[in-house]
Fold:
Amino acid sequence: MTALFRGPITGAKFFAIIFSFFFVIIAVNLVLAYEAVHTFPGLEVDNSYVASQTFDAERKAQLALGWQVKAHVHQGELILAITDAAGHPVQAASVGGTFGRATEVRDDQTPAFVWDGSVYRAPVTTAAGNWNLRLVAVAQDGTDFHQRVIVLVD
Structure:
């Protein structure tokens, strides 16, 4: 093995060095490109132009609700608190969404929320790290409410 590194750099040695360098760079790029495409969760909306046409009106209606949303996981249970502008608990007409990792869909779950009089609760399976709740709720007056809630699990 050490004989390879002795003596002058000939054409064959130079070719082997350059080939090895580019082989490693290209191999790493291919692995990273595969992982980037393989773990991409997908599109948020089917047609961004169509979604943009009603975005401002939906945002204004959602902000008019004055809802504040907080979520955390405690002993295998996702606890979702929705409060109004005065800080009172809100019971929505419907609450749903997707709970999963921020960067991949493999761990996505659809929590079955149950209202307990002050917060919504749903059993979930988690591990430590950054999780997202992509909340979809409908107010009693029919206003749609969408929000991504970051949930840090210890």
